[in-house]
């Protein structure tokens, strides 16, 4: 039991440091504030469970992101085992009342988020978010996605090209200048 | 797409997170909800974990000792039951000897400026109102002396003094507690703040007169309703230097403390530790260990007469397997070894044989089929023990004792 409380302290520190980032990350995948909140909690509870088992983490940030991604994907898979769960991400709109009550997003960022959400295949969105928005290195992104580093580089290059095309079509960035 | 536009896009993507603002109210509420969930999960895990890892082996032991093992506590005086304990050091039963515990009434802080506050953390809530810990860097004659903690609750602020001498921000541990510590929950145990090096402040709130009080202790805290009266006891385990377990309770309007070492009259035990606590037929099982490998003793806390009573000896541990090492046969028990005792790796299990065929180093004979596969599992010395008497084996990242048999 002592260990449990020590680990609670550790998880609380990690929660305080990363929960906003993780919430935003999951929110970007689900666009549902309530779900993002629940899955953020689930992520840190899973982390707590993991540490309770006596396991250790070398790089908490990467580890927690990976856990958050897995928790979110698991949830969507369970909820929709027969559908293409990957396409459930982003399919709803950012402009929902539940989001607006809790989260305020600048208009230009909102448009950019919408464009990222339209990227296909879904792996393009994953890699852009982690590498460019969350700011992970190639190695860290590869670790979170469980890909090779070369796959991250290639996919990112293609994804960015696609995103630039969408931006030019939508005129999002040009309007900001 | 030119290089400049790409850089611009990169910048826009980098700033996306900054441009998503989440309300402070939401952050506060969601943190509170998470803490509740974590506490609940910890409670569930603890019960489950102890049951699987300690409870089941213990139940097996109780069965092994036949029907008498469970009935022992209620029939302890029955001379027909062979419950004698060979240990010369440890008593067959003992009571906790409680005495008043002095505590400090925390006062309003002085000599600090709110604008000097480094940062604050919500450490608990009282009736839904958050309790914050604020930290202030403290200097004396321009020399850094540590981080001073201030508890802030509603409009009230109380001074905890120096909570850590570390220079690192957020070096202290904060443990939040939700326990029923006194009748009507007038006295609330709200948490522990401090570091292993400098010790911990145990914090209480008196709802009756709206004051905070507490005490300092080097040990680490947990709580459990040992005597099943509906109110939690806090137990504090010290592992560095003196090894002891102390029990703190609220009784007759005051804090009281009892030391297990003093209650058993042990001066310098190798380990006095609560390694399990679960309720089995009205018994709270508590394990106390002492300096000789063969004198480890299990005690059960009898809720009826509030006395600890010995109920098994080391050789009665259930054996899950036997292994052969260095011309000795060891029985693997279901009891886990504290990982900090693990010494050098001395070998591994190579093959399964029958019990009668145990002869070569690395041979193993399975006794209970439900134990995990042992092939290629590593064998370790224990730093505190004579390896001719006890070693350890690692199975699925846990270490288990293996005790030499009397061949």
UniProtKB/TrEMBL annotation, chain A:
Please verify whether the record's keywords include Transcription: yes
Keyword RNA-binding assigned = no
- Xref: Pfam families: Sigma70_r2, Sigma70_r4_2
GO molecular function per UniProt: DNA binding; sigma factor activity
Q: Which UniProt keywords apply?
A: Sigma factor, Transcription, Transcription regulation
Which Gene Ontology biological process is one annotated for this entry? DNA-templated transcription initiation
Question: Where in this chain does the record put each RNA polymerase sigma factor 70 region 4 type domain?
Answer: 110-163
The RNA polymerase sigma-70 region domain sits at 14-80
Q: Which InterPro entries match?
A: RNA_pol_sigma-70-like, RNA_pol_sigma-70_dom, RNA_pol_sigma70_r2, RNA_pol_sigma70_r4_t2, RNA_pol_sigma_r2, RNA_pol_sigma_r3/r4-like, WH-like_DNA-bd_sf
Which family is this protein grouped under?
A: Belongs to the sigma-70 factor family. ECF subfamily.
The protein's name: RNA polymerase sigma-70 factor (ECF subfamily)
In its UniProt entry, the species of origin is given as Ornithinibacillus halotolerans
From TrEMBL, chain B:
Ranges annotated as spanning the membrane: 50-73
Q: Which UniProt keywords apply?
A: Membrane, Transmembrane, Transmembrane helix
**Entry keyword annotation includes Membrane:** yes
Q: Which domain of life is it from?
A: Bacteria
Q: What is this protein called?
A: Uncharacterized protein
Q: What is the protein's species of origin?
A: Ornithinibacillus halotolerans
């Amino acid at each position: 039991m002592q260990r449990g409380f020590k680990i609670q302290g550790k998880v609380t520190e990690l929660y305080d440091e990363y929960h906003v980032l993780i919430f935003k990350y999951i929110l970007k995948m689900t666009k549902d504030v309530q779900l993002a909140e629940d899955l953020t909690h689930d992520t840190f509870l899973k982390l707590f469970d993991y540490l309770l088992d006596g396991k250790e983490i070398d790089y908490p940030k990467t580890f927690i992101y990976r856990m958050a991604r897995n928790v979110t994907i698991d949830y969507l898979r369970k909820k929709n085992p027969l559908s293409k769960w990957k396409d459930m991400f982003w399919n709803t709109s950012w402009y929902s009342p539940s989001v607006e009550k809790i989260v305020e997003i600048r208009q230009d960022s909102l448009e950019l988020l919408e464009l990222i959400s339209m990227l296909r295949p879904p792996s393009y969105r994953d890699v852009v978010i982690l590498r460019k928005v969350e700011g992970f290195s190639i190695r860290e992104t590869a670790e979170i996605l469980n890909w090779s580093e070369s796959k991250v580089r290639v996919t990112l290059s293609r994804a960015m090209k696609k995103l630039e095309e969408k931006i030019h079509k939508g005129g999002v960035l040009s309007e900001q200048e | 797409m030119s290089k400049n536009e790409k850089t611009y896009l990169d910048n826009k993507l980098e700033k996306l997170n900054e441009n998503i603002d989440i309300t402070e109210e939401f952050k506060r509420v969601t943190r509170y909800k998470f803490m509740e969930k974590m506490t609940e999960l910890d409670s569930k895990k603890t019960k489950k974990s102890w049951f699987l890892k300690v409870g089941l082996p213990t139940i097996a032991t109780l069965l092994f000792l036949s029907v008498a093992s469970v009935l022992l506590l209620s029939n302890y005086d029955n001379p027909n039951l062979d419950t004698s304990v060979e240990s010369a050091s440890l008593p067959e039963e003992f009571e906790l000897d409680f005495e008043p515990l002095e505590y400090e009434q925390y006062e309003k802080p002085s000599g600090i400026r709110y604008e000097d506050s480094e940062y604050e953390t919500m450490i608990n809530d009282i009736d839904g109102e958050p309790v914050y810990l604020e930290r202030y860097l403290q200097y004396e004659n321009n020399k850094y002396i540590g981080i001073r903690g201030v508890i802030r609750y509603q409009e009230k602020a109380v001074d905890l003094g120096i909570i850590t001498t570390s220079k690192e921000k957020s070096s202290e541990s904060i443990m939040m507690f939700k326990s029923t510590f006194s009748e009507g929950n007038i006295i609330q145990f709200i948490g522990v703040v401090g570091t292993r090096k400098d010790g911990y402040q145990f914090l209480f709130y008196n709802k009756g007169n709206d004051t905070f009080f507490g005490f300092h202790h080097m040990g680490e805290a947990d709580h459990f309703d040992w005597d099943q009266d509906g109110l939690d006891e806090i137990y504090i385990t010290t592992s560095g230097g003196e090894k002891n377990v102390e029990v703190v309770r609220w009784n007759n309007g005051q804090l009281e403390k009892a030391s297990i070492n003093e209650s058993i009259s042990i001066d310098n035990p190798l380990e006095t530790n609560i390694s399990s606590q679960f309720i089995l037929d009205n018994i709270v099982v508590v394990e106390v260990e002492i300096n000789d490998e063969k004198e480890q003793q299990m005690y059960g806390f009898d809720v009826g007469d509030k006395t600890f009573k010995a109920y098994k000896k080391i050789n009665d541990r259930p054996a899950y397997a036997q292994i052969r090492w260095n011309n000795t046969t060891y029985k693997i028990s279901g009891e886990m070894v504290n990982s900090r005792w693990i010494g050098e790796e001395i070998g591994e299990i190579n093959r399964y044989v029958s019990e009668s065929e145990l002869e070569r180093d690395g041979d193993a004979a399975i006794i209970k089929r439900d134990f995990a596969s042992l092939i290629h599992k590593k064998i370790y010395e224990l730093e505190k023990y004579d390896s001719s008497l006890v070693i350890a084996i690692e199975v699925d990242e846990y270490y288990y004792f293996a005790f030499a048999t009397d061949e």
